[in-house]
Amino acid sequence: MVDMNRRGVLTLGAALGLASVVTPSAAWSWSPSGSIAGAGTGVDPQWVWDDEIDQIMASALDNGQVPAINDAILPWVNNGQAVPSGLPPELAAFLQREKQLPAWADMAKLRRAANFNRKKDMYLFFLYGLGGGIMSTVIPREAKSVYWSAGGADMQDRAAKTFSFGYDLSDINAFETSGQFLVTSNKTRLVHAAVRHLLPQSPHWKAVADETIPISNADILVTFHSTGTFAHKKMKEWGIPMLSADQDAFLHSWQVALHMLGVRDEYIPSSWNAAHAQSAQVLTPILGLTPEGKALAEVLLGLISQVDLGVTRGFLNEFVRYQLGNEIGDWLELKRDYVSAGLIRVGWPAYIAFREGLLPLVPANFYLFDQLIKAIAMAFLNRGESGLTTPITIPTGNRAG
Ligand code: HEM
């Protein structure tokens, strides 16, 4: 892993546009007064997992029940559908309870968030798909666990499934009876619980991990900051107009998503200020390069650039550098393409201005950004002939090697 000294952390924080940055060795000190719960134990979320479902999935895996569970949950898709029959009773009871929205969820805000997501979908697509996607490869715990879990062997399929989470969260009906988010998030929670039991049995994982059990509450918060918080920061930095009620609603949809993924309310930021402060503490200091992350980034960027829409690998590399900064670009050894870098530096702000109605004429090179978004969509949202992504299924093993 790249050694991050304080100066490195500061430079990286600035490159990513993070508000303030703390030292890498700082212990957990984010105050629960900035959380949804408003108070808490102060326990470091790195040591908090999802006990009840972790135990249920561990016993289901040990007893060979997972293939039957996967069959039972396959047709369970919409929020309004009843929890399927045929599940072990403790799992059925868990899902029955946990598929409900938390008491603090505000449907008016969630509907507003859905509208906001629709209006900003193009930016979110770039920010989640390229920025967040590649940032995840320099989050060592995430990169290693994704690489060594079963899904790491087929990154296109895995990326498509993760995109479907974002898709379901951003859908206009996400939280309505006809939407799918409450089901998708619960299925994801089951997958994460299974991974917590499986990965510690992987010799590869054991050889590289600095923790035994992956996907703690802190790890999930880190992923939120590399996607939601990062998107919020960049959209502000890029001058994209956002009403404060919309920003609030956007945060609210993430707050609910985090709760549905099993993060305790005492860790879920109650405001964007609190979220950015938490991000500076939990995300920036841990960024670093691992062999697994480098390999994953290559696969992800290769998948996009192999879609033949005239988006060159150089342009893609430079767009990643534009979003994440040169330090991360250098770690990943993304080859420079200075012509593309210049095009992006001038063209991207013009593209935004045109889309926001601030420029009367279509700017030169407009099509390049449109082609890029199509290429990302084709690489990761390819829903095949059935029109559906591969359904989220609970793994029963790890990546072989
Ligand atoms: C699986 C989303 C956080 C590691 C999944 C899946 C989704 C998802 C939708 C199911 C897709 C699949 O089966 O491949 C999310 C979201 C997160 C989050 C929205 C936070 C906001 C994390 C974190 C880690 C992680 C923090 C690790 C540190 C994994 C792994 C799998 C998985 C290893 C299983 C892949 C397999 O099937 O082998 N996640 N995740 N996730 N996630 Fe997450």
UniProtKB/TrEMBL annotation:
<protein>
    <submittedName>
        <fullName>DUF2236 domain-containing protein</fullName>
    </submittedName>
</protein>
<dbReference type="InterPro" id="IPR006311">
    <property type="entry name" value="TAT_signal"/>
</dbReference>
<dbReference type="GO" id="GO:0016491">
    <property type="term" value="F:oxidoreductase activity"/>
</dbReference>
<feature type="signal peptide">
    <location>
        <begin position="1"/>
        <end position="26"/>
    </location>
</feature>
<dbReference type="InterPro" id="IPR018713">
    <property type="entry name" value="MPAB/Lcp_cat_dom"/>
</dbReference>
<feature type="domain" description="ER-bound oxygenase mpaB/mpaB'/Rubber oxygenase catalytic">
    <location>
        <begin position="124"/>
        <end position="331"/>
    </location>
</feature>
<keyword id="KW-0732">Signal</keyword>
<dbReference type="Pfam" id="PF09995">
    <property type="entry name" value="MPAB_Lcp_cat"/>
</dbReference>
<dbReference type="InterPro" id="IPR037473">
    <property type="entry name" value="Lcp-like"/>
</dbReference>
